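A.,

Following up on our hallway conversation. Structure tokens first:
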């Protein structure tokens, strides 16, 4: 069964109200019915995909039916190689997830399974999503399996334009008209709360207030977002009179897109200041002279940054992003362009909302599939207020609104809009990573600081504002650039292949953000950097330049090995076609290092084995081909007991590797550093 819902109320509200577990199960035996729900939201999840839906459905079912888990693992062929002790080695591809879910449907004791997917238009519109929906809609029911009832909701324009539903036109959907009354109570509460802020300032009859509120509820036509936006428009004026309030309520347009148009026109009227038709908008005071350090150009830049950002930006990150120019060479160079009060600036833009910081910073792995979690922290290290768009529809509206021709916006909405796409953002982020502030290489210690290394290094990173985002997301934006310009390629090349110390610092920051400690990387080549990050356009560039796909870094890794290790399959294929040796693997002796027995035991933090090997006569200061002794490996592993055993055996704490580093330089565990110090 396919549900086609039309009407004004938001689909998530509809799903929650009409298809909650209690409502769905009214006509079914609850013991024989399972309800699986997923609300798509690509504002919260970087890249929404059907793999997220499948994972969630599998989790919801197995969590509720724990007794059936053994049966599932026995009958699902794709789980034959699953090892719970090495779960990270198990790849959850679409076919594997579908096999697991299909096995659930075939082996369940439930008679009916409701699969409810809200806002499917926010899911990636690709072949995988189409295949997923096709399989759900056409799956034959086994005699002893569950009957699947599929309920999909999406915006009307998606239903009209998407080829996914057209492909399955043989399945006539059940059409339901969603009347505004369904959410009128919720909207009434929103309007009541909105009016409470200025109702006392108006000397008007209560009956007049009730009429105005009811008019707003009626015009909302069931759309909660419309009511929120309308109240924002009303609250913008400080001196509200009854006549003005009536005129505003009467003049409010009826649709969400129309009210977005109104907001954009209002911003233009207030901030789009010109000295002449042929000149760029000023970033000075708006026309009403309220002293704002803004301007329509800056507002558009902020909106596009927030709309395209891979995660929510903090206020400071947005402030730095707006001030960076591609000709900047150091962090201080952008300071004269800073906004005096970034929070005040953000709150003047009705498309934005400021989200208070959470009580604590949560798991850093984002809930998305098409991006490697190890590359993309979903939050900053320190809990902070962030900026986001008021709704997903605002993102779609902003990205569609800026259509350029000759530098000017087409249509009556705004002028002076410039193009800011993923290529521009990637260029800005690489510019930050190339700042001369970082060209002296990684920070190793913080002399004169009583703080532990980790805390001091974190403060060092945070001091540069946008550095966290730049380190994690420059490659994300580069991967989204289909055809990079020569200027962008040159900029990335100058960073990846020619700014050696900057690359080292970027690696150190990235590791710290992701796994909480740092390591030094030397002998990195441009092809290694972009193969590691899966930036295919740059991989092709370096291959065309003559870079060798089998060249090894200090750990013996080739670009092909790094691409395979990070699941960049298209990147690996490009390198394979260029002649890369596909038989090279990490193997047991990872990074192609030949370690002594003592070094292996030290690297594994096995203090007892280290003590026994020392008693057998193994040399405590024997070095590998990079000059690293066992003390280097014990310190890097963060095992203070092993460090202590080696020091008691007269290991040299001042030994240097070929790069001039001491064991302390690669030791980041506080207790280990105390022992070594």
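Then the amino acids I'd put at each of the 677 positions:
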């Amino acid at each position: 069964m396919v549900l086609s819902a039309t009407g004004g109320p938001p689909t998530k509200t509809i799903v929650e109200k009409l298809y909650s577990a209690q409502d769905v199960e009214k006509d079914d035996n609850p013991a024989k019915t399972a309800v699986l729900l997923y609300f798509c939201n690509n504002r919260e999840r970087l890249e929404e995909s059907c793999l997220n839906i499948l994972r969630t459905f599998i989790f919801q079912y197995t969590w509720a039916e724990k007794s059936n888990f053994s049966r599932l693992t026995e009958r699902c062929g794709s789980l034959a190689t699953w090892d719970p002790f090495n779960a990270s080695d198990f790849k959850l591809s679409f076919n594997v997830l579908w096999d697991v879910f299909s096995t659930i449907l075939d082996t369940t004791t439930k008679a009916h399974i409701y699969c409810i997917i809200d806002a499917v238009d926010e899911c990636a519109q690709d072949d995988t999503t189409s295949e997923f929906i096709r399989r759900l809609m056409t799956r034959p029911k086994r005699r002893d399996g569950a009957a699947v009832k599929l309920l999909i909701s999406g915006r009307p324009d998606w239903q009209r334009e998407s080829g996914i539903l057209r492909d399955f036109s043989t399945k006539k959907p059940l059409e339901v008209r969603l009347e505004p009354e369904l959410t009128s109570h919720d909207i009434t509460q929103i309007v009541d709360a909105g009016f409470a802020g200025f109702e006392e300032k108006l000397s008007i009859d209560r009956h007049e207030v009730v009429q105005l509120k009811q008019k707003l509820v009626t015009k909302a036509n069931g759309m909660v977002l419309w009511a929120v936006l309308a109240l924002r428009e009303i609250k913008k004026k400080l001196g509200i009179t009854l006549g003005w309030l009536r005129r505003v309520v009467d003049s409010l347009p009826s649709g969400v897109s129309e009210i977005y148009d109104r907001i954009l026109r209002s911003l233009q009227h207030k901030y789009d200041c010109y000295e002449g038709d042929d000149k760029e908008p000023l970033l000075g005071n708006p026309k009403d002279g309220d002293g704002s350090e803004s301007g329509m150009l800056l507002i558009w830049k902020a909106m596009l940054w927030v709309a395209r950002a891979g995660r929510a930006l903090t206020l400071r990150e947005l402030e730095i992003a707006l001030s960076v120019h591609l000709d900047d060479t150091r962090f201080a160079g952008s300071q004269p362009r800073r906004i005096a009060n970034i929070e005040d600036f953000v709150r003047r833009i009705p498309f934005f909302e400021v989200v208070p910081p959470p009580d604590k910073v949560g798991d850093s792995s984002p809930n998305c599939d098409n991006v490697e979690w190890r590359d993309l922290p979903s939050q900053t290290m320190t809990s902070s207020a962030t900026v986001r768009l008021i709704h997903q529809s605002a993102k779609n509206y902003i990205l569609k609104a800026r259509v350029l021709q000759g530098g000017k916006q087409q249509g009556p909405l705004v002028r002076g809009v410039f193009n800011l796409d993923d290529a521009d953002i990637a260029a800005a982020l690489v510019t930050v990573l190339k700042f001369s502030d970082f060209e002296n290489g990684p920070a190793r210690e913080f002399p004169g600081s009583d703080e532990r290394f980790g805390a001091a290094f974190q403060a060092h990173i945070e001091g540069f504002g946008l550095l966290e985002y730049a380190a994690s997301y420059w490659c994300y934006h580069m991967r989204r650039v289909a055809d990079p310009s020569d200027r962008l390629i040159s900029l990335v090349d100058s960073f990846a292949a020619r700014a050696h110390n900057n690359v080292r610092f970027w690696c150190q920051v990235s590791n710290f953000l992701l796994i909480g400690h740092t390591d030094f990387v030397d002998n990195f080549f441009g092809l290694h950097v972009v193969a590691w990050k899966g930036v295919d356009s740059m991989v092709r560039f370096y291959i065309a330049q003559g870079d060798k796909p089998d060249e090894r870094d200090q750990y013996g890794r080739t670009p092909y090995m790094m691409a395979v290790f990070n699941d960049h399959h298209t990147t690996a294929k490009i390198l394979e076609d260029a002649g890369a040796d596909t038989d090279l693997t990490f193997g047991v002796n990872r990074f192609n290092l030949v370690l002594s027995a003592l070094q292996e035991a030290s690297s594994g933090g096995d203090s007892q084995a280290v003590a026994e090997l020392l008693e057998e006569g193994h040399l405590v200061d024997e070095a590998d081909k990079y000059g690293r002794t066992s003390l280097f490996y014990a310190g890097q592993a963060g095992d203070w007991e092993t460090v202590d055993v080696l020091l008691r055996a007269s290991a040299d704490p001042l030994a240097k590797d070929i790069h001039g580093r001491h064991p302390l330089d690669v030791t980041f565990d506080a207790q280990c550093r105390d022992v070594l110090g």
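The two ends are 69 Å apart (CA to CA). Curious whether your intuition agrees with the design.

B.
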